[in-house]
Design goal:
Largest sheet: 9 strands, mixed
Structural class: alpha+beta
Number of strands: 15
Bound molecules: uracil
Distance between the termini: 35 Å
Radius of gyration: 22 Å
Length: about 250
């Protein structure tokens, strides 16, 4: 039987700050199992108590997982003074403690997981787990003939750091504006752009199309999102517990 204070419950479910929620309770706008409850410290049993605020049933959601197609012009953060954040885009969220798993640049589009699951996040971002991230890039400049091998061998970035092996696939050889898929297994700052820069090319468009078992749906336009499916969540959890390594 998991219990939680009423004000904490309502705060976590996004009804306001702790003091706003206390105020709501004091004003008699909150009911537990149909009875008005004016005590913030009242414990609710998450498995059976029914909590209502202004007559609306509030169901407790401990974890949320959304797959977002991040649009350009948004920032991978929870707060920002200049740009809308990726968390602002999740209009259906129940919790107020969601954050993006890793960062995409302001001008990068594509797959971003938004959750409040810290353990899973740690696992997905851990260099030890080598989670594949696949990017679609459009470039100006000419890639050297031996680019595939140079990405595979590891490149030296502008600050002297060496990258781990990455897999390059050029999609339109011979075109003036190269389109390529790049798979990396780490997440250094501006990594993809800096890897192409190390070979004399500029990324003019960048989109992440997958991260581990998660793939970007064609159905999600930039700015759109959906909850993870049960299968996607299971695959992520297998990664977290190491069960995928046994396969
Ligand atoms: N690499 C970059 O350079 N930018 C991103 O947004 C993600 C990876």
């Amino acid at each position: 039987m998991t219990q939680m204070r009423l004000d904490k419950f309502l705060g976590e479910m996004g009804l306001g700050t702790r003091s706003q929620v206390k105020d709501l309770i004091k004003k008699g706008r909150v009911a537990v199992n149909g009875q008005t409850e004016k005590k913030s410290e009242r414990k609710v049993d998450l498995s059976q108590d029914q909590v209502q605020a202004d007559g609306q049933l509030i169901s407790y959601t401990p974890w949320e997982y959304y797959l977002l197609n991040k649009p350009q012009g948004t920032v991978s953060a929870t707060e920002d003074n200049r740009y809308p954040t990726v968390v602002d885009l999740i209009k259906d969220k129940k919790r107020k403690d969601l954050f993006p798993v890793g960062r995409l640049d302001v001008d990068t589009e594509g797959l971003l997981l938004i959750t409040n699951d810290g353990n899973l996040t740690h696992c997905l971002l851990s260099p030890k787990k080598h989670v594949d991230k696949v990017y679609f890039a459009r470039l100006t400049g000419t890639l050297p003939q031996d680019s595939v091998k140079r990405f595979q061998d590891g490149l030296v970035l502008d600050d002297g750091q060496k990258t781990r092996p990455a897999q390059l696939k050029v999609l339109n050889p011979g075109s003036s504006e190269t389109e390529a898929l790049l798979t990396i297994h780490e997440g250094k700052f501006h990594q993809v752009k800096r890897m192409f820069q190390a070979l004399g090319c500029q990324v003019v468009y960048l989109k992440r199309i997958s991260m581990g078992p998660l793939k970007l749906d064609d159905s999600l336009k930039p700015g759109q999102y959906r909850p993870l499916t049960a299968k996607e969540l299971r695959e992520l959890k297998d990664l977290e517990t190491g069960r995928d390594e046994a396969k």
